[in-house]
Amino acid sequence: MAVRTPDPDPSDSGDELPEFGSDGVSDASNPGWLSEFELAEARRRLPMLYVEAVPVRTDGSGQVTDIGILLRATPLGEMKRTIVSGRVRFGETVRDALFRHLENDLGPMAFPLLPASPAPFTVAEYFPLPGVSAFHDDRQHAVSLAFIVPVTGTCEPRQDALEVTWFSPEEAVSDALAAEMEGGRGALVRQAVAHLGLIR
Amino acid sequence: MAVRTPDPDPSDSGDELPEFGSDGVSDASNPGWLSEFELAEARRRLPMLYVEAVPVRTDGSGQVTDIGILLRATPLGEMKRTIVSGRVRFGETVRDALFRHLENDLGPMAFPLLPASPAPFTVAEYFPLPGVSAFHDDRQHAVSLAFIVPVTGTCEPRQDALEVTWFSPEEAVSDALAAEMEGGRGALVRQAVAHLGLIR
Amino acid sequence: MAVRTPDPDPSDSGDELPEFGSDGVSDASNPGWLSEFELAEARRRLPMLYVEAVPVRTDGSGQVTDIGILLRATPLGEMKRTIVSGRVRFGETVRDALFRHLENDLGPMAFPLLPASPAPFTVAEYFPLPGVSAFHDDRQHAVSLAFIVPVTGTCEPRQDALEVTWFSPEEAVSDALAAEMEGGRGALVRQAVAHLGLIR
Amino acid sequence: MAVRTPDPDPSDSGDELPEFGSDGVSDASNPGWLSEFELAEARRRLPMLYVEAVPVRTDGSGQVTDIGILLRATPLGEMKRTIVSGRVRFGETVRDALFRHLENDLGPMAFPLLPASPAPFTVAEYFPLPGVSAFHDDRQHAVSLAFIVPVTGTCEPRQDALEVTWFSPEEAVSDALAAEMEGGRGALVRQAVAHLGLIR
Question: Which Gene3D superfamilies is this protein grouped with (chains A, B, C, D) (predicted)?
């Protein structure tokens, strides 16, 4: 079974952020926009820079109580679990990319608290060939800066993410959940829970 | 001039948290409470575990805009600048100690966002003998877990902290400010600003 | 069954590092040395500062290939697994304490590569009452700065540590190994493996 | 004055690693190789993934004593200071890229000790437009994972890096040195020294 990442940047095909020209060529007015053809070509030649976020709920003392996992329908209609994930665009800061993808995947009322420091808690490397690392994406070589992001509001996923499910840290690291996750991201969730000091 | 840390645990002498018995002996009902004499003895024999916090303000994207520095009167009436700092008690979690000292030093309406992860951004070692490390406390050997803590509310210092002053990251790392800070904590503020990616 | 930490500072009772006076009182020439009675008293009143190290082997590119676990006989003759662990003394830097305990537990030919940065990968909190955190020590409240330390030489444990066993990262996070580890340190090993990006 | 990064991947034009076809078109046998034209195009459209390393010398206890800074001649014959820096190739792990650039810039006898963990100590973002961040590269948008790497052997820079100069941590954070460094990397060196706990 081909395990694919979610569409890397769901908003790219949205109206408000038309990175892809409808005619398959890049918009001449912005060299940072790529046609679908050009992006597909670049994916065969260069590592793509991604950001990923594990959404969490915290109690009043900052202790994490719940881990948020997205449920998403793949293009083939299969249901897969994943985390917030997407590409960094040309000219965009990592912080802005992280904010944009959090809003895309969790909705405008999630009120995420982005990290103050630029250092990710880990770096995940996705290769098209399975087995090179814990992570796999048959479409591209992607390198992802992974962050843990408390959210304080209400999550209403947009686009192809259907819902956010909240799990206890114990449930989040279970084999059952890991088996449902796309591209090996169960390992990323476990790393996040371990980083929080909540693995036993 | 003797540079001293602030009283390590201002609340210890407060009514609501009577760690020190008024008669100078420990409260028999709680072996974790120390008399002033016993605490003074322990300070000559054991490293004391501290937590410290650099309070920060952030913008909507989590980017730090301001660094909070406390102004405090020393027992000798001298004005010194410092950060949130205090001892971890017997049986108390690091998270609870951090929360308690933030509330003591910034007031109950500061609404600090404590870090989700237990790992400090750095560890500061204070020695009674100057020059062993960047940090100095002529009263004790203290080892401090240092955190960066966004605060979202209003700071109203209690007890001996007189006020919180907000500085830009550039001002916070200036030589002038560092010279006013207790025990070498100017170095700790610089490490915090560097950790935030805001040093130039 | 009482789960105990290893003796926190095996060298303290050794000939070469006589922290405890043989007569049970502290050595007047060094106020940082504690009698056994005084140390026992302090343990009932103050959190003890510890350092811990997960020894690892790496390949030529720095990738961790093996995790080192100590086998130790408890005072009751029970065999338990643990990691390098010990107390920070008065006046001692964290780095020196880490080096001292690595040498005590792995021998003088282990050639450990101590971390360049003072920040631990995590902080483990041991409480006398089980269940407060993942970690437990029925003798004391200890707060431990945990580091991952590559060793390049030959490990020959001294004193009560009987041997070092090298496990693959997969084996090191197994439930079977975690069940054999003292004081909940299986969780600490899992956090270390996760920090290394090697958990799946 | 245009401040440019060093050629991002000096080895790309070397004989042993012919990423660029001599005729300006990509090698059909490896779609991950880019022609110079294609790479130039990609640089106008996508953020480039980089790794950077601050080489350090340590003493026997792992404490950093010296910071290594490269001296390099720009294509215009200007002398600039920099650190180890280069692009991650398609299909290459971050660890392999880091190792390759360390060898390129420090020579085969440097014997670097690569970090065990995949998390960088910071992420540096280089934008073609100055002022967006502390870092600037007029040729591209590059996002760099920055590591601190102890080297134990002899550094003999190859290619366009002329020499490695070792500075004390105090010298390494001086304004004079920062002014000589390419693309704002003085800030990156300061962040590294701060991360090591060596800034005062």
Answer: Nucleoside Triphosphate Pyrophosphohydrolase
